[in-house]
Amino acid sequence: TLEIEDPVWLARHRVNMSGAEGVWTGTGSDDGLGTAFKYVDSPIFEPLQDEQRPQRQERIRTLRERLIALNRRGIDSYLFMYITGEPTEALITHRPELLGPAQLYRASRDRISYRPFCWSKPEFHELVRQLVQEIVKTYPTLSGFHLRTWGNETRACNCPECGDSSEKGQEMLWQVIFTIINAAREVRPDFKFYLSGYDQSWLKD
After folding, report:
1. Is there a contact between 71 and 21 (Cβ–Cβ < 8 Å)?
2. How far apart are CA 156 and CA 161, in angstroms?
3. Vertex 203: Cα angle to 199 and 205 (nearest 5)
4. Edge-to-edge strands of the sheet including 144-148?
5. What CA–CA distance (Å, rounded) separates 116 from 92?
6. 142 near 77, Cβ under 8 Å?
């Protein structure tokens, strides 16, 4: 299920997988990889946070409790994340070198445009690796990630190295996905993943 249903309800109805843990609003402006810093409390990510620490700590506590409840009932839990979604405002301010030029998108935070990540930069992949590993360590009962590729919320920047939605951009997308997979499995080899897309507009073989 993609709904955040009560663990008891899920178990009663024999649902064995919950795929929208965390925040599910249907937009990459707050449930993408670019805003997933709010799920961790490490000092190294503090400059990239849009929320105050007490608010973030409460979210982490609530999510941990839910994941424990799901695990006790034999239900796999997957943290939902758009790949890559919109970056936090703090990241835009403090790490602008990781971003490409703004691109039009009506579902962005300002309803006009946002700056996508430059997937070709090694520094971006290193940041992703660090963030993913911190999430995996923070939630030991999390089963895996639900990685979502969807329209304009999944796009490389349009620099020559990334290629936006060209075949080069498709290749870059898979590099991002495998950066996430490899980083998580360095911490937990049994960590699982499922991928979803939309009409093959991004996620292609």
Report:
1. no
2. 9
3. 110
4. 17-21, 76-82, 144-148, 192-196
5. 10
6. yes
- pLDDT above 60 for 61: yes
Q: What is the pLDDT of residue 106?
A: 84
Distance CA 159, CA 154 (A): 15
How far separated are the first and last CA of the chain, in Å rounded? 25
Q: What are 63's two structure tokens?
A: 């999510």
| Residue 192 neighbours by CB under 8 Å, 6+ apart | 76, 78, 143, 144, 145
Q: What pLDDT is attached to residue 124?
A: 97
CA distance 205 to 203: 7
- Give yes or no for residue 118 having a pLDDT over 90: yes
Please say if the pLDDT value at position 193 is more than 70: yes
pTM score, whole prediction: 0.94
**Residue bearing tokens 């009409």:** 199
> Comparing C-alpha atoms, which of 146, 142, 131 is closest to residue 42?
131
